[in-house]
Amino acid sequence: MKFSIVIPTYNQLELLKRALGSVMQQEHADYEVIITDDSTNDLIKHYVQSLGDARIAWYRHQGNGNAAENWNYGLQQATGQYIILMHHDEAMTGSDYLCRLQQQMAAGTGIAISQVAVITGSQKKSRRLSKLLLPLTLRWPALLFLVNAIGPTACLTFSRQLMQPFNTRLRWLVDVEWYYRLLRSRKGSSAQSIQSIPSLIIESRHGHEGQITGSLNIADTFRSDKTELMRLYRANIPVRLMLLLYQWKLRL
């Protein structure tokens, strides 16, 4: 199995259909889809069962309100050589997305980074600032704690040997801290390189009901995350400096 596409979901059947459909349209690709479901109903379960596709597996996750635990649960089920964690409000563009990724990974890439296009209502925008910052971030990963130059998790494809769990004590910076460890872990790995592939696009839908970041108090959540990160990285001056700069950016 070449790719494991992990899709954590919660009470968002229509978004899940879009995310899953973007995977099922992939041509000449060897993949499995792992859906880990925190929902309060069985709509997603019944939908997946109705598809009758052996490549798509549904798992019930007994959630406790911590989304990152569901993400980790999905990663634990993955058996593929390459792994993508794609939230239910994200989607691959084009029917050759995985085929092109496979060619890149087979050439020795340990981590591949796609571009994100953010969809808000009827508007679609690419993140131009991230394109400029990404080369710097790949060289100095601590910059992630100041600016997320990667985007959502679906933009990152990584070799199984680089697997890292999410820190479930974090909420606002949970993704960038995970990216940071993934990028750092490559240094001790046989994976040969990190490659940015701007021509591969992940669409990320923002502003919908139920979006996790929309329900967070950013100031309070950042303060909690900062306490945890300062503890974890007490001897890491670059990370601590980026956290202080991010706090200044938020005017806290």
What does this structure look like?
The chain has 252 residues and is of the alpha/beta class. It has a single domain (3-249), classed as Spore Coat Polysaccharide Biosynthesis Protein SpsA, Chain A. Helix content is 37%, strand content 24%. The protein has helices at residues 13-24, 43-51, 67-77, 97-106, 128-139, 174-185, 218-232, 237-249; strands at 3-9, 31-37, 56-60, 82-85, 90-92, 109-120, 123-126, 156-159, 193-206. Strands 1, 2, 3, 4, 5, 6, 7, 8 and 9 form a 9-stranded mixed sheet that branches. β1 (3-9), α1 (13-24) and β2 form a beta-alpha-beta unit. α7 (218-232) packs antiparallel against α8. The longest helix has 15 residues, at 218-232. The radius of gyration is 18 Å and the shape is globular. It starts with a strand and ends with a helix. The model has no long low-confidence stretch (mean pLDDT 90).
Radius of gyration: 18 Å
Q: Hey, roughly how much beta strand do the residues contain?
A: 15-25%
The whole-number mean of residue pLDDT values reads 90
Query: Helix amount, in percent?
Result: 25-40%
Count of DSSP-assigned helices: 8
CATH class: Alpha Beta
Q: What overall geometry do the principal axes of the alpha carbons give?
A: globular
CATH superfamily descriptor: Spore Coat Polysaccharide Biosynthesis Protein SpsA, Chain A
Q: And the CATH topology?
A: Spore Coat Polysaccharide Biosynthesis Protein SpsA, Chain A
Give the biggest sheet.
Answer: 9 strands, mixed
| CATH hierarchy: architecture | Alpha-Beta Complex
Domains (count) = 1
